[in-house]
Specification:
Elements: H1 18-53, H2 65-70, H3 75-96, H4 106-130
Helix pairs in contact: 1-3, 1-4
């Protein structure tokens, strides 16, 4: 089996079988893509919640996420949310490969990505709560 040439300037040895190296990179790239996609989806759902709750759109309570995505002119929102995921991808990939010169274990990568997604969802929920319309008392 062929091996990659070791690189002395990096803090870790790159001499591993090509098959193992491909698996290493494929898993990290896939996890980074999935996490970045979740960032984009969360941003889009947050935008939809904001749209549903913001006057004068709040009167259109029947607008579903499906309508917001496919039947309304939301291309700017969609592109912005996709851009958020694209910008997040390299960050996830960088820290999933090990910033300290050592290879990051898959468990650490999963924990980092899970914590990141947890905080993205909490931030979106917090923004949605802040932007909820006031409850009117009809007495």
């Amino acid at each position: 089996a062929s091996t990659l040439i070791p690189h002395p300037d990096l803090g870790y040895d790159l001499a591993m079988p090509i098959k193992e190296s491909l698996r290493y990179w494929c898993v990290r790239i896939l996890l980074s893509v999935l996490t970045a996609a979740l960032v984009s989806v969360t941003a889009f759902v947050c935008a939809w919640v904001e749209y549903r709750n913001a006057p004068p759109h709040g009167v259109e309570a029947g607008r579903s996420l499906w309508d917001f995505t496919f039947h309304m002119q939301t291309f700017g929102v969609q592109n912005t949310c996709i851009l958020a995921g694209i910008l997040a991808f390299p960050l996830f990939l960088i820290y999933s490969t090990g910033l300290d010169g050592k290879r990051t274990s898959l468990i650490k990568v999963l924990i980092y990505n899970s914590v990141t997604i947890l905080f993205v969802v909490l931030m979106a929920a917090g923004l949605a709560l802040v932007h909820l319309p006031p409850i009117e008392d009809h007495h």
